[in-house]
Amino acid sequence: MPDSTRSRYDVVVVGGGHNGLTAAAYAARGGRSVLVLERADHVGGAAVSARPFAGVDARLSRYSYLVSLLPRRVVEELGLPITLKRRRWSSYTPVGEGGLLVDSQDAAATRTAFRRLTGSDADFEAWGRFYAMTAEVARRLAPTLTEPLLPRSEVRDRVVDGVGEDAWRALFEEPLGDVLRRTFADDVVRGVAATDGLIGTFADVDEPSLRQNRCFLYHVIGNGTGDWDVPVGGMGAVSGALHDAAVAAGATIVTSATVTAVDPGSSGAEVAWTDADGRARGVAAGHVLAGCAPAELERLLGGEPPAPGPEGAQLKVNMLLTRLPRLRDDVDPVAAFSGTLHVNESLTQLEDAHAQAAAGRIPDLPPSEIYCHTLTDRTILGPALAGTDAQTITLFGLHMPARLFRTDPDGARDRALRATLASLDSVLAEPIEDVLALDADGAPCLEVRTPVDLEGDVGLPGGHIFHRDLSWPFAESDADAGRWGVETEHPRVLLAGAGARRGGGVSGIPGRAAAMAVLSA
């Protein structure tokens, strides 16, 4: 970490999250002088690993936790030494005394599970057709994410020519709820599919804006497969590799550096910031790449953030268990928890929870989904835990918008956690509290973060994990075709974070796009 900086850089990156680091690595490799300014005392933003429990050597992916959208192209171009492991089982959904296990490597077993739940093969066959369609759309669209924006008409032609008109309508024109009701007969099956449209997105499945469709699309197109993989070593291994790539390319990274203003200028930008000692500093920049959220960039530019602003909608609970909890079904717990375990996420339950949250209430039966990192990768556990039955659990609660936590953050957090744990207990054969490990102080190994907490922790406006609602991954006007989807009204200021047109998730796509825009200027 340098104790001094130059007075001018070709590129100044605001924010050292994984996208900011990606932008820095590409720009520096392209021969530009690069300075990264990060508010926190470490880089990585929301893509970090941490030891949240006192005296317990378990490095959890604290905020973001799985990887799908990070293109192989970025990994190869930057030479990132990261390993992503594929999960054998896609999902398990407890229902009464049974459940639905989707095994990506055993179609016969999955067919049996669908038949046991629904009473026929119809939804299993519909499931196969539906996800074969999304897989083909993914195969055709994923390569475009690292290229300049294509016009909507060309993306439509790619989908229609290769997959069909029905695929275009289902994903890009009709509300997701209508599509799922038409495709599947069973309410639980509909809900399992619907959740990919609601991760980090507060929307009803019938929302006319189709923001739930955009969220769904990004969840099924990553790397042309839609697979969500486990980063070996935790999410910190990903941001750590990007940090090392940026530094190796020559970028200068300063932490505990708070940017206070950005002046776009006409011939060059100026960035004001304060250092770790509170001293006011300034630096000139040929370009400013904003890894922060668009709302934060607008504030730094001296404007008014949008009203209403972005709103996140998730409750994140990290846990360390002494062992996996028992389920009511005779399903293998390893299979159930290795993939995504859906908790009270039938379509009706999702709709009810959304309606209650929209009315300003914490849902009575909060829907959530769970996965266990350590069933795929035990390297995140220290030696004292490595030979035990201990497991890390990540719970992601849906329909928990920031509005529920504004007036009473602590009280609402406690109420939301109690309701969420009760919802989880309703599908287990024993209370989750019975298998929670204890930290060095005797407290349960459980950490809960609301959207308001994320706003304070990592600077996400409204706690929105995508910085704002996701956009379609193509140019929606002729003027934007051929651009990178990172441009602002100021030619020397570009978006480089999740709020860019092809942002969201741990992807590096907007960071790379911002660097490409600079290098091609």
UniProtKB/TrEMBL annotation:
A matching Pfam family: FAD_oxidored
InterPro entries assigned to the protein according to its UniProt record, in alphabetical order: FAD/NAD-bd_sf
Q: What is this protein called?
A: NAD(P)/FAD-dependent oxidoreductase
